[in-house]
Each structure stands twice: as structure tokens, then as C-alpha cells.
Amino acid sequence: MDNILYYVIALIAIIIGVVILKKVASCLLKTVFTIILLAILAYLYYRMN
What is the value of pTM for the model shown? Predict the structure, then answer.
């Protein structure tokens, strides 16, 4: 069940991130934010395994 919780949290973070990016971010900020978000998700993935 813990793995499902991590995936749900990651999915919510992606959805919120996309909504925020569409409203306030420029192209450069979108790139930086996407890289940071992917790094966090990769960290969570490797931490679970």
C-alpha cells in the first residue's frame, strides 16, 4: 500500500505543477521546474526500492 501512496502523491504533484506552470511560469521556469520535479520523482522511486 505504501507504493500506491507514493504514486498518488507523485501524480498529484505533477497535476498541481502543470496547473501552476500554465498560469504563472515562463519557458525557462517551466524547464527548471520540470527538471526539479523529475529529480524529486526519481529520488522517491529509488528510495522506495
Answer: 0.48
How many CB atoms within 10 Å of residue 19?
Answer: 10
The Cα–Cα gap between 36 and 49 comes to: 20
Q: Return the C-alpha torsion angle 32, 39, 12, 23, nearest 10.
A: 0
Going residue by residue through the chain (49 aa), what tens digit of pLDDT does each one get? Answer: 677 888 888 888 888 888 877 777 667 777 888 889 889 888 888 888 7
